[in-house]
Structures are given as C-alpha cells and as structure tokens.
Amino acid sequence: RPGTDAEKSVALFAANGMDDGLDPLALEQDLRxxxxxxxxxxxxxxxxxxxxxxxLVGFESLMRWHHPTMGLVSPLRFIPLAEESKLIxxxxxxxxxxxxxxxxxxxxxxxxxxxxxxxxxxxxVQMQEADFVERxxxxxxxxxxxxxxxxxxxxxxVVLDDVDGMLSILSRLKAMGLRLAIDDFGTGYSSLSYLxxxxxxxxxxxxxxxxxxxxxxxxxxxxxMIAELSRGLGCEVIAEGVETANDVIRLAQLGxxxxxxxxxxxxxxxxxxxxxxxxxxxxxxxxx
Length: 288
Ligand code: C2E
Ligand code: MG
Ligand code: MG
Ligand code: MG
What we know:
The protein is built from 14 helices and nine strands. By secondary structure, the protein is an alpha/beta fold.
C-alpha cells in the first residue's frame, strides 16, 4: 500500500477500476462529506481554441476533488463512483451553478470574451432524473446566465441507453437555448446518424484518434471523415488531446475547427486562468 499522500494520489491516478485497494464505500462516504463541506470540489477549466486563428473561444470545465488526506482524486475514479451512488446529481448541479457564475464573470472581465462559453460535462445518470431540465432552467435563471454561454457535453454511450427518452430531454434543453456537444465521439457505438437525430451543435473527436494520428499519419483519415460528416450536419468539430504544434496544423488540415489539449493548456483553477489571461484582473475586481 502506498504511504505518503503523494504516493496515494499517484495510485489513484493509476487505477482504472476498483482494484486499487481503496475501500469504495469509504471513498463514497468521503465524497458525500465533500459535497456537504463544499470546499473540496472545484471546477478547473481547460481552454478550447480556434485551430486556424489561435483565438480562445471557451473552456471545458473539469471537476477536481481535493481529498483531505489522499490529495487529488482523479475524476476517472470518483465520477463513476458518483454515478453509482447518484451523488453525481448534486455534483452535477454544483458544476452547472459554478460554471454559470464563472462564465458570467469571464464574459464581463476577460478581453474579447463576449461570446465565450463554458462546456459542462453532464452524466446520463443526472439527465435521467425527472426534474433535470427544470433544475437546469432554475440555475440559469438564478445566475442570470444566457443559455448560449453553456454547452453541455454528453458522452456517446449515454445517448444510446434510451434513444426516445434522451431525444425528448435534449430537445427541451435545445429549446431553452443551450448548446449540446457529443463527447468522446467515435469511442461508443452510435452511428453518425445520431448526430443529426439528436441535433448536436458540436462533436468532440476523442483523443484516441488524435493519438493514433500522431503515431501514423494515415490514421488522420478517420478524423477527416468524422470532421466532414459532422460539418455536413451543421456541427462544430473539436479535436481533443491536442498535444503538439504539429497536431494543430494537421487537425486544421483534416477539417477540425477547434482544439483542446495540453498544447494549449492543461485544466487550471479559475484564479490561475485569470492570472494568465488578465494580469490586471484583481484590480478590475476591486473596481466593480
Ligand atoms: P472528458 O470530458 O473527455 O474530458 C477530457 C479529459 O482529457 C480530461 O481529463 C482532461 O484533463 C484530459 N485532457 C485534456 N487535454 C489532454 C491532452 O492533451 N492529453 C491527454 N492525454 N489528456 C488530456 P479529466 O479532467 O481527468 O476528466 C476525465 C473525465 O471525467 C472527463 O472526460 C469526463 O468524462 C469526466 N468528468 C470530469 N469532470 C466532470 C464533471 O464535472 N461532470 C461529469 N459528469 N463528468 C466529469
Ligand atoms: Mg468532456
Ligand atoms: Mg472528452
Ligand atoms: Mg473522456
């Protein structure tokens, strides 16, 4: 068993399942406590960039859990746990509320940010709650956030679980003015026709395709095909896992409009983002 906190968090990052020796029930209880305590969960933000102009267009929000003794716990570990225990429902609402406040602030304070958006990951478990759409509407109204400032990221596998139910939820969200992105595209089982049927606004090409392209340029053909079809259906195309300057050039050539990845920046806490983008931000804050 790992000893120090750092070793433990490394172990958590390495773990994919429940075989890491940590008691999932204890972790679930800790997560419950974290939700009540309120200060252990925090959204970090990763830039989404126009691949041709290099312009920052928005951010994806990614949840971070600062566990009091184990340090940072990966979302790959705690999101599945949260889904099983339904704790994803309060966590997901918290994420939406935080993202609304953040995008309000950034649309006001960051340079050239009037049209900026924040992507929020939404779990299928959360979407299947009977009052999901109403709760989202309440949060937007409470924070006075325009619906076009958020984009909901939905993973492909989730969409397929219940096609009719999902269609009705997604069309109600769209009627509110929210935009929808299909996440990790290409890793699930759906056909491209789902893109059209569900009226997604954006397709996020999974980072495994970008990695494959880096290894063998011919693999870029898959990306080109997804990008072309997506665009033909009126969807924006965002490549995930952009790690090198060469990725940027190739992905733009293959028809991807936007990119996200370590090349542009890792997910960071909001204070760090503000320091990077607007050194005078603290001053601005005291004025307002
Ligand atoms: P995702 O939504 O597909 O998010 C992208 C993941 O790729 C993030 O991992 C991000 O840190 C990572 N990433 C970004 N750029 C690169 C890159 O250039 N190279 C590589 N190798 N990785 C990159 P993260 O933050 O660990 O999140 C993992 C997953 O956890 C997310 O995948 C999402 O499915 C889930 N998740 C995170 N936050 C939330 C949340 O607030 N709600 C829900 N329901 N799920 C969340
Ligand atoms: Mg995502
Ligand atoms: Mg993704
Ligand atoms: Mg993913």
